[in-house]
Amino acid sequence: MNITILGIESSCDDTSAAVIENGYMLSNKIANQQVHKDFGGVVPELASRAHQQNIIPVVDAALKEAGKSLKDINAIAYTRGPGLMGALLVGSSFAKGLSLSLQVPLIDVNHLLAHILSVFLSRKETQVPVPAFPFLCLLVSGGHTQLVVMKDHLTMEIIGQTIDDAAGEAFDKCAKVMGLPYPGGPLIDRYAKQGNPERFAFSKAVIKDLDFSFSGLKTSFLYFLRDRLKEDPDFISGHTDDLCASIQKAIIDSLTRKLLQAAKKTGIKEIALAGGVSANSGLRDAVKQLGKKHQWNVYIPEIQYATDNAAMIAITGYYKFINHQFSSQHLTPLVRSDHF
Ligand code: KG4
Ligand code: ZN
Question: 306, 265, 331, 315: which is closest to 108 by C-alpha?
């Protein structure tokens, strides 16, 4: 029997729908929301309204590209959280309604687990090597930074996490103080490619065990810029590439130091990188280099699966489906990850 899952993602500012068949991707459509550009960050109420406008056309487009119709769908997987309450409500209400009308099971998905399972995503024609269990994942997104041991597809053990800002937040906040538009992470990545990462040094927090901290780095970057701007009002525009390369290096160093520590502590050599920040070219290279040095097998999702998308929700739905983990119509969205 074919198992065909429709996935729906609406946790933040991307409305996405995808179809997965027997664990392989058939389609993955994403509507990016442009309404937030002028506000320097995601405006929750605008995000909810845009999700409402986008969700039907996006689901339609995903089904069309997959060559499927609603009657082919065996289950509907949707993001239950973490995320913005209003945004989550749009996706979850839509998924619940569709599951009732089609009389197919509903599957709630933890967005963070879905990011990790993005390393299992591929089309049937372009299969990728996948990690063996247990594997260790450095999960880096806009709202979360965690080290997770995956015992099987659905069992996460968090062994370290940020005590303040997430890595994506550090990228975005540092970009903001340089006057770059939101989200700044991809722009820092772009400018950093032409810059010298050794040009400026910023103080990094020393945090115990496998936890991370990024708020001190952001403050040190802010004070550094404030002092330099006093001497030279054009300091930022004259040094954008080197500033981006240096702050990116500081963030990557903090992340990879803890990843190495976690790999040593657990003895695990199957290493994955996931979440929106795993799209960062410097971080991808750094983890691959570490992998070569320490004989790890490294798994990183293709860029299209690194940032928020519904294919990762659908593949998580697929693994929950084959493990008979369905959910009731009564579940409410969860804003925070520690409520899972
Ligand atoms: O996983 P994601 O798409 O959404 C959340 O679940 O938060 O991650 C978004 C984060 C943002 O902070 C964004 O700036 C960052 O990922 N990001 C990047 C890059 N692409 C996205 N950060 C650095 N370099 C990139 N290329
Ligand atoms: Zn995400």
Answer: 331
Atom of ligand 1 nearest to the CA of 143: 7
Q: What are phi and psi of 13, to 5 degrees?
A: -115, 15
Q: Are strands 135-140 and 270-274 parallel, antiparallel or unpaired?
A: parallel
Give residue 10 CA to ligand 2 midpoint distance, Å.
10
The model's pTM: 0.97
Token pair of 243 as six digits: 């500033």
Q: What Cα–Cα distance (Å) separates residue 134 from each residue in 122, 138, 152, 264, 266?
A: 21, 13, 7, 14, 10
* Strand pairing report for 135-140 and 145-152: antiparallel
* pLDDT tens digits along 188-245: 999 999 999 999 999 878 898 999 999 999 999 999 999 999 999 999 999 999 999 9
The residue nearest atom 8 of ligand 1, judged by CA position, is 276
Atom of ligand 1 nearest to the CA of 281: 26
279 CB less than 6 Å from ligand 1? yes
Number of C-alpha atoms within 13 angstroms, CB side, residue 226? 6
Atom of ligand 1 nearest to the CA of 307: 3
Is the previous residue joined to 82 through a cis bond, with omega within 30 degrees of 0? yes
pLDDT digits (tens, 9 = 90+) for 161-179: 999 999 999 999 999 999 9
